[in-house]
Amino acid sequence: MNATKATPALQSNDPSFANIWQELKWRGLVHVSTDEEALEEVLAGEPITYYCGFDPTAPSLHLGNLVQILVLRRLQLAGHKPLGLVGGSTGLIGDPRQTGERTLNPTEVVEEWVGRLRSQIERFLSFEGDNAARMVNNLDWTAGISALEFLRNIGKYFRVGTMIKKETVAKRLASDEGISYTEFSYQVLQGYDYLELYRQYDCVLQTGGSDQWGNLTTGTDLIRRVEGKSVHAFGTPLITNSDGSKFGKSEGNAIWLDGEMCSPYTFYQFWLNTADADVIDRLKVFTFLTRAEIEELAKEVEERPFARAAQRKLAWEVTAMVHGEENTQKVIDASAALFGQGDLGEIDLATLKSVTGELQVTEVEEQTSIVEAFVASGLVSSNSEARRTIRDGGAYINNQKISDGEQVIGDYFLHDSLAILRRGKRNLAAAAKK
Fold it and tell me: What residues does L-tyrosine bind to (predicted)?
């Protein structure tokens, strides 16, 4: 393939900022916090231990979680010590949503998902050196506690009046469905997590999304009441698109970090399709490019938006970080080959399937004629139109121009599995072996 190869930015913080707090603010990653001046001072000083929690409510993390993982990584690069918490116990309960009760998943499912999320988080952090990351599971300190112990030793520090004022709880209480005691108690469990991590690891900072602010401050309040100590928290903003639509979804589906749930091709295309109005903010949040590099790309967007240099850089950086450089290059090469700029025969089957996942795929018998395959694919409406397209030189299979429509499609299957049909320059479909 002749596609230009690139190298992702090295993971390091930008030395042009006075400290990590200033960089986090410039990247738009601070929406709300406890005492900002004190927090900046702490982060500019000796290494501290900090954490972020992830609940196993699905078998994979998604782009919203990636924001938090990258905050963990940026703070680690500043010398601090991350704890990645996967909620084996809180995942059994479920964080209250804005509307409606969660469906409680079976224990064995939650246990499996804990393992999957843990392995995903581990890929982004370093587990070596003086500030090596550690993974923790809150089931370790909750499983052995009886209900009476929990109510006596932890529950007594919580005030119901304060709990019902939390934004999500208040909305649910005002709804027709209300909120169960199970989900109402979630904030107590999360607060207890912070207390235990403070006790076990001297953890003094929790990060999370701003929609979790009520839960984050539950932990800081509990530590103040129980231990008489002040600790910190800050929340990142919820990311939305400039047009007001929800970020992190493509055609209604979440963009997962698991390549089986969201192929590297779909992942790459999601970033490539970022609007001009959003791309610079996305570069700040999701890449390790420096301020100078991002400002240069901002000029490109302003002066040469048609080149989409910022989008291509964003797509490369994030896809390479999540799926690796090799898979990212495969996606780029396959995308180019789809439209005649490379040999589709050189694309491995897994990548080919991920690319064709965005196309109309029709199953056909090996003995189906090319004319019939073009009709079945929907690229043409009739046999006569298919023959006319072939006669006019506008029909291609695997980028080969077709002259004989009576040949069988089976002669063209790549990996004995798929054939890529093209009408004209950009109308694509796939034929799969039945």
Answer: 51, 186, 190
- pLDDT exceeds cutoff 50 at 4: no
User: Across 156-170, 309-323, 347-361, which has the greatest mean pLDDT?
Assistant: 309-323
Using the 3D structure, point to which of 207, 236, 265 is the last residue of a domain.
236
Q: Which residue has the higher pLDDT, 212 or 17?
A: 17
- Report the b/e string of 24-45 with b at 16+ CB within 10 A: beebebbeebbeeeebbebbee
Which residues, 6 or more positions from 43, have their beta carbon under 8 angstroms from its beta carbon? 19, 20, 21, 75, 78, 80, 205
Tokens of 334: 């396959």
249 is in an annotated binding site: yes
268 known ligand binder: no
Q: How many domains does the chain have?
A: 3
DSSP annotation of 238 reads P
Q: Which two tokens stand for residue 202?
A: 């001297």
Q: What are the φ and ψ backbone dihedral angles of 210, each rounded to 5 degrees?
A: -65, -25
Same domain flag for 213 and 328 = no
Residues 65 and 161 in one domain: yes
Cβ(24)–Cβ(74) under 8 Å? yes
CA distance 359 to 208: 37
40-89 per-position pLDDT tens digit: 999 999 999 999 999 999 999 999 999 999 999 999 999 999 999 999 99
Q: Which domain, by its residues, includes 307?
A: 249-342
Nearest by Cα to 84 from 71, 95, 100, 102 = 71
Give residue-wise pLDDT tens across range 96-134: 887 778 888 999 999 999 999 999 999 999 999 999 999
204 φψ region: left (φ > 0), alpha (ψ -120 to 50), beta (else): alpha
* SS3 track for 296-311: HHHHHHHHCHHHCHHH
pTM of the model: 0.90
Residue 373: inside a domain, yes or no? yes
Q: How far apart are the first and last CA of the chain?
A: 30
Tell me whether residue 212 is annotated as binding: no
The DSSP code sequence of 184-227 is HTHHHHHHHHHHHHHHHH-EEEEEEEGGGHHHHHHHHHHHHHHH
Residues 122 and 183 in one domain: yes
Residues 153 and 45 in one domain: yes
Give the separation between CA 242 and CA 297, rounded to whole angstroms: 18
Q: Where are the alpha helices (DSSP H) in 324-362?
A: 325-338, 349-356
Establish whether 198 is an annotated binding residue. no
